[in-house]
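Researcher: Please generate the 3D structure of the following complex. Treat every line as part of one assembly.
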Amino acid sequence: MGAGYIAQQIVNGLILGSMYALVAIGFSMIYGIIRLINFAHGDIVMIGAFATLGLMAIPGVPFPLVAVMVLGVGGLVGVLIERGAFRPMRGAPQVTGFIASLAVSIILQNLGILILSAQPRNFSFPAYLQVMINLGPVSFRLVDLMIMVTALVLMLVLMAVVYRTKLGVAMRATAEDLDVARLMGIDINRTIMVTFAIGSALAGIAGLMWGGKFGQIDPLLGFVPGLKAFVAAVIGGVGSIAGAMVGGFVLGLAEVLFVGLLPPIYSAYRDAFVFSTLIVILLILPNGLFGRSSEERA
Amino acid sequence: MLRVSDLHVYRGRTYVLKGIDLEVGHGEIVALIGANGAGKTTTLRTVSGLLRPKSGSIAYRPRPEAEPLELAGMPAERIVRLGISHCPEGRGIFASLSVKENLMLGAYTREDPQGVEQDFQRVCHLFPILGQRLEQRAGSLSGGEQEMLAVARALMSRPRLLILDEPSLGLAPLLVERLFETLRDINREGVTILLVEQNAVMALELASRAYVMETGRISLAGPSRELMEDEAVKQAYLGGL
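Model: Done. Output below.
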């Protein structure tokens, strides 16, 4: 097991991690603004993947445009879910929203099976994205590079929006106190809607990446990224965007290194390992890496 | 400026305000005093639109010559735009945001960047401690500084009517003195103030008129000087002074 092999595993981990991070960011933003554990978030990844498949089937649409449209589809679906399922629950106990999100998740999965059938479909990007790139001992496809670069660019844009614009200040204020945000004149319904749109757009584009990475998609594929994003968000400290990013990368790396560095008989335990990591981290840092304690937030 | 008539408010199933009438004139400082749970905070939250009344009217005239606007049922984010700024109980600053971001949120609804910049300079001058800590997280300020920030932020909307809920809560006596001095200055510049206070002595000294609330109703009203002499008020709220 040489240095080259380890370098290759690290690259693989970063690619996986960047997808986890994208999904985790939206999950964390939505939790941050209305304290909703949104289990339907992973299903937007699925919708993004199928939207990609559908849009790529239209002749003459260039691939970058497909990606932009998938961002839009994800955002739109997120907004519709918020309007239809979560806004009517506003002010209800946290567990109500959680159950509503489970219901939305089940509805989306079953609609997917009904409309698209449960049969997995092959998913392949244009040939030019499949080109292998060799950098010394490390090799990856162009699509992998694209996944990482796109994810990083989107995260930078998001950070700029959240920390540098008036909209971002309004989002952070709304996350901290809905009533006081209203007293400042912030339209919290609009701010919450925008948060859902941004978070879900990121999940949608993660669906495009997921399909490209694994080559096959089905209506239930959202479960795994949804759960992993939840874990990543908790590792980072739920509600913190930076935490979700770091949590996603930590999780991706840990998972790939676990599979890559230990004897193959253990690789079936990768999810067990992921959740053990979560437990250990929460034992040491109950609020996650970047989380603030609830006393401080109050 | 503000005329509240026969206001009835429920919080959930609890009947909290059982027909409130009160008035605030242009340029006045009016205090609302009373025991915990009397409905003072509920009154303020209804005026600023965070709570919807069951019935009753809240008529508001931004200027003496203006036509009255009905605020009952209007959402909070629209009421701010009419020149009413509510500084909530427990300060309500955004702890994870910087001092400057908090102040700028006070001016969230304003469209005049030059005026905002002027007011920003003015509150930094009025509260020098805030001016020195603009980049600091608001949550890291002391209790007194947080209260200053809450008042300064409320001023950033350049309000005509400033609503303050328990501004002295948890502050050292010296800071309370300074805060009330500042409120007097703000009032002299033409801002009308409606104030809820536990500290009835300070409130009556500051305000020209006051209302005493008891279990959802106004039990007494009048000029502060008269209320200070009232035996019942002395017994109940002024510690029998």
